[in-house]
Amino acid sequence: MQMPDRLDDLYKDIILDHYRRPRKQGLLPDPDLKSTGFNPFCGDQVVLTVSLDADGRISETGFEGEGCSISQASASMLAAHLGGQTIEEAEALVQTFKGIMQGDELSEEEEDALGEIVALQGVREFPIRIKCALLGWTTLQDAIADYRKTQAG
Amino acid sequence: MYDIQQVRKDFPILNRMVNNVPLVYLDNAATSQKPASVIAALVDYYEQYNANVHRGAHTLAMEATVAYEEAREKVAAFINAPSPENIVFVRNTTEAINLVAHTWAAERVGAGDRIVSTEMEHHSNLVPWQHVAQTKNAELRLMAVGADYTLDLSDLDELLSPNTRLVALTHMSNVLGTITPVKEITEAAHRVGARVLVDAAQSVPHMPVDVQEMGCDFMAFSGHKMAGPTGIGGLYISPDVIDEVEPFLRGGEMVLEVTYESATWNRPPMKFEAGTPNIADAIALGAAVDYLSGLGMEQIREHEIALTGYALERFRELEDVETYGPTDLSVRGGVVSFYMSGIHPHDISQVLDSFGVAIRAGHHCAMPLVRSKLQVPATARASFYLYNTEQEVDVLISALRHTMEYFSDADARQAR
């Protein structure tokens, strides 16, 4: 019995590294944005907190979660990547990531901008796991929607 | 003698390769595979006598009606129901339970009444009762799961108060494999005048089930877990209670006489089957019942006891793997839920798939049981059926060893 190679596309070392040693662990005490995402399919959970600076740019992130390697690594990568973006830019980032999961090809510049997040591309070959990879990102989207409501209200 | 290799030939899908290796299908608690005879019954209906039932005097309509009602007779005999009238065809176990919740329970459970269920229910036998309790201001109480993963019956007499209207419990847990003492609990429930609904989704496919011996008032089961097609299941309603149950859906076929102002109901089971039923799948469920009866439910149960015993023995060889469920095989079905420290069940399932092994990962639609009682976020689950072999268990165990190595190698690489 031999380990099939295709698994290595999914479980890239950088992904397993984020799973074992998640970045930005712990919730911010007084965040501007906060949301909880849940994937009932496999019980994955992510709580994401985001703080904004005076210019409305993301200054700090923190998350807690429980779940499979893909869901937690993806949330860790997202939390680590966020910083300096406006809300609109963060939203665009979520759309870009969703596009990647749907098969969009990236230009070299786009790949450079995303950094290690590109490693999650391999998840595309395992469609059932896309939901896991998206969890942190849809949680950010929900947090932004909630934030907008409180701003409007 | 149970000839497992001969049995396997009856299931075309077992020839399939998955990721270039033979399929090892161990997700039978989710749904079972279908023998060729069941698939043929579907094709035969659509190619030879597709017609609506209980109306029209033409040949095809007559043949379809006869086959549909014969399927009901087969299902009734299979669970030893007193009459085919006591079998209502529904979509699945969930629909069967909801039918009772929306009809009988909606009328018979009132403010201050009690419904008793258990901590090991599938969501389908928990969520409908939460709804009834909330809307009727009734109370939902749960029998506890003990340390040995069986039901704790020590406070049963206290639970079964005089205001208890219904006891709704599983016959076999889809997470733990626990077989519950339904007969004993039914007798106790009847002593206080409560009705009993049994979720038999996991038991009817795997062991002899006799509703009259059990004494229950309602029993729900699904065709697709018992070698039949999806989209068809059964609700048994006992003669004692059938007159207390109002129709769930209203429309054609369930009526006797209709005026512009009102209608009277057809007799059971038609009273509960409004609209064109799932004719093809009901007929194919009849074929599944024939298939299971041909093998013998006692023989199937024996095969699964032996296989589960073997699997549990092999699981004990694996370090850092915890299994859940009773160790006494006489009260356990062919379900092995397990947890591997440090590897999420979803990742286990992913790696096993690359070895052709199909298992389930998650909370198995029993979220409170997995999280509160087993105290893990999710489990992996291997579940067996009549066509599984010891060799397949060996493949599972070997693939699990590879899974552990794969993730510990990755950890080692990162440590460097």
Number of domains of chain B: 2
| End-to-end distance of chain A | 60 Å
* Physical arrangement of strands within the biggest beta sheet of chain A: 1-2-3
Assigned CATH architecture of chain A = Alpha-Beta Complex
CATH class wording of the largest domain in chain B:
Alpha Beta
Short recap of the structure:
The complex is a heterodimer of chains A (153) and B (416). Helices cover 46% and strands 16% of the residues of chain A.
How would you describe this protein?
The complex is a heterodimer of chains A (153) and B (416). By secondary structure, chain A is α+β, with helices and mostly antiparallel strands. Chain A has one domain (7-152): Sufe protein. Chain: A (Alpha-Beta Complex). Chain A is 46% helix and 16% strand. Chain A has 6 helices and 3 strands, in the order ααβββαααα. Chain A has helices spanning 7-10, 13-20, 69-81, 87-101, 108-114, 130-152, and strands at residues 33-39, 44-52, 58-66. A 3-stranded antiparallel beta sheet of chain A has the order 1-2-3. In chain A, α2 packs across α3 and α3 crosses α6. The termini of chain A are far apart. Chain B has 416 residues and is α/β, with parallel strands linked by helices. Chain B has 2 domains: 4-26 and 296-415, Alpha-Beta Complex (Aspartate Aminotransferase, domain 1), CATH 3.90.1150.10; 38-293, Aspartate Aminotransferase, domain 2. Chain B has 13 helices and 17 strands. Chain B has helices spanning 4-9, 36-48, 59-78, 93-108, 127-136, 156-159, 182-191, 211-214, 279-295, 297-315, 345-353, 367-373, 390-415; strands at 17-18, 21-22, 24-25, 87-90, 114-118, 139-143, 164-170, 195-199, 218-222, 233-237, 255-258, 263-265, 321-324, 335-340, 357-358, 360-362, 379-383. Chain B has a 7-stranded mixed beta sheet, with helices on both faces. In chain B, a hairpin with a 2-residue loop joins β1 (17-18) and β2 (21-22). In chain B, α4 (93-108) runs parallel beside α5. The longest helix of chain B is centred in the C-terminal third of the chain and has 26 residues, at 390-415. Chain B starts with a helix and ends with a helix. The mean pLDDT of chain B is 96. Chains A and B meet through α2 of A and α11, α12 and α13 of B.
